[in-house]
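request received
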Amino acid sequence: MLALWHSIGFGLVTASVLAVASVGLTVQFGVNNYVNISYSQYMTLGAFFTWDLMNYGHWNLIVAGVVASLGVGVVSLAIGKGILNQFVRRGAQAAQMLLVTFSLALLFNAIMATAWGANPFELSMSIQTAHHVGPFLFTDAQLDVIGLSALLLVGTHLLLTHTRLGKAMRALSDNKALARLAGIRTSRVTDAVWFLTGFLASVGGITLAVEVASFDLNLGINFFFVVMAAVIVGGIGRPYGTMLGALIIGLAIEVSTNVIPAAYKLDVAFVILILILLFRPQGLSRIVGKA
Amino acid sequence: MNSVIGLWIANALVNYGILALIAVGLNVSFGMAGILDLAYFLFVAIGAYFGGVVAMGPPDASILLNHILGLSMPWPVAIVAGAAGAGLVGLLAGLIALRRLRSDYLAIVMFALWSIGYDLITNSSGLFNGLTGLFNVPQPFSTATNALTYPWVFLPIVVVVLVILVVIALGLERSAFGRTLRAVRDDPDLAESLGKPIVLIRIRAMIVACAFAGVAGALTVFYVGAYNPSAWSIFETVAAFGAILIGGRGNVFGALFGAFVISTVSDGVQFIPTILSRSTLTADIREALLAILLMLVLFMNPRGIFSERFGIRVSDGSTLDADVVSRRTSSQDGAKS
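response:
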């Protein structure tokens, strides 16, 4: 019973990591209408930038993480405007964009392998103390991850509901042509989406690196289809559905370790992803409602 | 011809032959049937592993070599077994992914299937020896004296297999089945309305493609004598798709040409001097070049160098084909305006 409660606690931490990364992906997916596989590499890049700032700049995790994520946001904006938007302008379809972003992920992989190598890294932290919260047991870092995730999700919620930019993003996600007719400057909103989603991907990657303690080049690509699973479960372009999707996937992954070997826990997410795409491709969005 | 350059050429030719097989197979599923099969290298791996365990004899715990089957069949039987194993797993993947999904969702499911396959094979040491992979696989015609010039020994095998499978692929491309595949790819609704069982047709294309992949995988395991998960990382799939997209979709000659370009890049980077502190630099440069090449092709000319009709006599009286072509051109004109 204790093991079950602990695994649920782990599930909440994983869900927090997933929620940030998958809300970013779902917003990007919703506005662009294609899957950006290189999003997975923005997660890894964020973790590497943070490691550099902590080790060479001797900054603490939070400051380094924020600066690194702003940097990844800029990278995401540059790649989005400079490369991906150009393909779309040429009339590339979703299937073709999948191959483009797949190659782009490979290019990122090669560049990061050259810069950081394939060795494992750690985002160094002070010695962790454990806290009992209800039936759960969390370390300092895990509580930070949950808190940070909650903060960012509330922030994203406020952005989407209370600002002109957020409303424009949602309009674009629903119907691009209509949004343009309504006088929304779509290219500016798209730029903001590139930056914001790059930032969220990076935060997701950093918190993931903190959660798994030791990370390497494959951090993001290994986790990408778990993020994708949360997006698909929640419904593409539906931030709130995706948060629920992250909770479901995060709990499913960690609770499954009570039944199956932990080495296969991510496969639980892949199986859910496949089942949802086969039997309910619109996700659970009808239940949760639109953003 | 046994000089360093001679051996490089022989090795490059063997690598080219294997990649050409991989590309010709992917041309059936992705090129002709339009299936975005991002799990394709999983099937190459299945072929390699099956081919290996059918030929390499029983497992030997004293050298930490555990695997299933452990038969000692001759290598031609093992190649057929590799094709059959990959085809079977391809059927399974097709039954899961091809019944309902099209386009990018299908690609995501294939990607997820690849991940599951990768986790299963790397984590279970009793299946194909986990992360260490298979080794000590007996190499055909290998003797103590020809070990240094082995690429020349192996090259004729690759040539014979490649010629046989290219003839099969050309026959397939020109057959009624090939035309149906293209019709299903270009306009599934139209093909379905004409009574074509499109799911069945796509699953059949998938099995054929996977069998080709299996042969290529089995050849790899016999050429190298070993096989482990680093040989089929998810990004290897980019090389196979690159070959098809450079050469042009749905054309065997295009696949052969594209494979030549890709394998030239892969073998050419071996001339870059190795730096000790960055031992993976050559592999990284290869990855970067492949990625940039594929993106350039997708940007400049997504149709590839050879058109689909290259080498095919057009007027064969097939009304379905003609109709699809005219619909396709008209829909493109509509998109341009």
